[in-house]
Amino acid sequence: MIRASRLALFSLGMALSAPVWAQNSVPSEVIDKIKEEGTQRSQVMQTLSYLTDVIGPRLTGTPALKRANEWTRDTMEKWGLQNAHLEAWGPFGRGWTLEKFSAQVSSPQCIPLIAFPKAWSPSVRANGQVMVVDATDEAGLEQYRGKLKGAIILNGRVRALKAWFDPQGRRYTDEQLSKMASAPLGASGGNRGFRDEHDHENEDEQPNPAAREFAAKKSEFYQKEGVALIVDPSFNGDGGTLFVQSASVPQQTKPGSRRRSAYDKDAPKIIPQMVLANEDYNRLSRMIQQGETLTMQVEFRVKFHDKDLMAYNTVAEIPGSDKKDEVVMMGGHLDSWHGSTGATDNAAGVAVAMEAARILKALNLQPRRTIRVGLWTGEEQGLFGSRAYVAQHFAERPTPTTPASPGTPPQPITYKPEHEKFSVYYNLDNGTGKIRGIYCQRNEAVASLFGEWLTPFKDMGASTVTLNNTGGTDHQSFDGVGLPGFQFIQDPVEYGTRTHHSNQDNYDRIQADDMKQAAIIMAAFAYQSAMREEKIPRKPVTGNREQGTGNRTP
User: Fold this and answer.
1) Residues 65, 58: contact at Cβ < 8 Å?
2) Three-class secondary structure of residue 379 per DSSP
């Protein structure tokens, strides 16, 4: 998942008249059956284990992700869902698989290293001196000319690490929810990163054009000098936890230039890149500062997959009855990063959406509208899979070829026939934490309705509704073209401190009871939406731009 800002919530009163409840909600005994099935006969953890333990990392464009596509399709078909299939989108670009890896300091002593190659980095077999390049401009680089051939560069600041006196895992307390509830509407959006004083910004995200331009020139200098490997400190984490994403590609700074990615089929040649755990990075930096000469041995062998440049979403559905041509959707993203097995980001959301569908099918409930599961890919690179699906089926806003100037009118939306038949999309992509409520994306018309639907789950910890947006995940693809798309509020647990894009994002960090609770609530929301007389209300659209989308460019 990709990041957004802090959240501001308000709680809705739950005192609702019986006629309103009867009009908008299914009978309470149906909700009780959903709770029982999801609690007593849950398969959510078995699903999650296969995705993470067996299939493993699911980087977009890789055979592992295609295997996950096919397995989720076949599993939902086995459960009785219909029209289970893969939908191609793209072309995306090259896949990347790590086949072999080792890293250690070999001299003046053996130091095994906690490290991981960046995705789409080329292979390397290096045995070179470890060096720190202390330069902040092109003039500063000149002192290193002719001295870096075969060197391994420590490329970043030493991180000041702090002791953890508070737990890394957190849940929202009643007091915290109350404080968030009192925040004024529009003061801030939804929190996806849960960052705190222990976190660090990603140095790949250069803050201004001048910094980006120097980063590009430094990379070009390293390339010409024959640097063997660039080593970055983890941008977050400690205690051996490191966070790793994509290899960096030097970016052109000319106006209108296309951003290049390491997964592009025509990506430029780049130096191999690796992330090192902060404790190891700091120690090596201090040793060099003390006058030691270090030699590091690193080998990683990778394989690029460029025969099939397409990527795929998995789709399956429970057909509706009298309103079967109208659609309710739920889902999460199937792709992950490669440093671990992508459990909290986002096998959790995938397993919950699949389990919600399994619950409804196991109970043989007959929805009026078709309930469709969408498992997206390319989310980590920019919501690519869900945006492609929305563009193909519902509505499309053309992507500008050059950055828009301030005040430029928005690109017009082209609506497809299915747009009118769409009701709502529910997404889960905030880690393993239990659902505490839902973001309304500034759609005031749904607030009281969602408050009703959360009432049966107050004893399970879910009762909060916020009008504010949250960003950084696939509900935005729907919200961005005026369709109701929502993300559930979840407890942070260890998302920002330990698991998000890290080497610890594995099955053992998943909270089983939270997953069961989330699947039950998602099943109930999907079924409620499928059964009510009207589709979920939409936000007003002005000038072909929807109000308060919260959509941001990844």
Assistant:
1) yes
2) coil
How far is it, in rounded angstroms, from Cα 497 to Cα 193? 9
Sign of the C-alpha dihedral, residues 487, 493, 497, 503? negative
Q: Residue 334 is encoded by which pair of tokens?
A: 């199937």
Q: Is there a contact between 111 and 302 (Cβ–Cβ < 8 Å)?
A: no
Domain assignments of the chain as residue spans, ordered by start = 18-92+310-401+409-546, 96-162+197-305
The structure tokens 């029209």 sit at: 83
The CATH number for 96-162+197-305, chosen from 1.10.1090.10, 3.20.20.70, 3.40.50.720, 3.50.30.30, is: 3.50.30.30
Within 13 Å of residue 172, how many CA atoms lie on the same side as its CB? Answer: 25
d(CA 232, CA 290): 20
Mean pLDDT of the chain: 88
Query: pLDDT tens digit string along 338-376?
Result: 999 999 999 999 999 999 999 999 999 999 999 999 999
> Has residue 13 got a pLDDT over 60?
no
Cα(353)–Cα(315) distance, rounded to whole angstroms?
11
pTM above 0.85, yes or no: yes
Secondary structure letter of residue 493 according to DSSP? B
Letter string b/e over residues 210-221, b meaning 16 or more CB atoms within 10 A of that residue's CB = eebbbbbebbeb
Residue 96: both structure tokens together: 């990347």
- Tell me the C-alpha distance between 21 and 502, whole Å: 44
Question: How many Cβ atoms sit within 10 Å of the Cβ of residue 116?
Answer: 25
Q: Kind of pairing, strands 115-117 and 273-276?
A: antiparallel
Is the predicted pLDDT of residue 181 greater than 50, yes or no? Answer: yes
Q: Are 306 and 401 in contact (CB under 8 A)?
A: no
Q: How far apart are CA 207 and CA 222, in angstroms?
A: 21
β-bridge pairing 273-276 and 229-233: parallel
Which long-range contacts link 12-20 to residues 24+ away (Cβ below 8 Å)?
Answer: 12/447, 12/448, 12/451, 12/465, 13/451, 14/451, 14/452, 14/455, 14/458, 14/463, 16/448, 16/451, 16/452, 16/455, 20/452
Residue closest to 126 by CA, chosen among 101, 147, 109, 146? 101
Number of H helices, E strands in the chain: 13, 20
Residue-wise pLDDT tens digits, 214-273: 888 999 999 999 999 999 999 999 999 999 999 999 887 666 677 899 999 999 999 999
CB 353 within 8 A of CB 376: no
Q: Tens digit of pLDDT for each residue in 435-451?
A: 999 999 989 899 999 99
Distances (CA, A) of 356 to 226, 362, 425, 450, 521: 53, 10, 13, 18, 8
Give the span between the Cα atoms of 274 and 128, in whole angstroms.
Answer: 15
The CATH number of 18-92+310-401+409-546 is 3.40.630.10
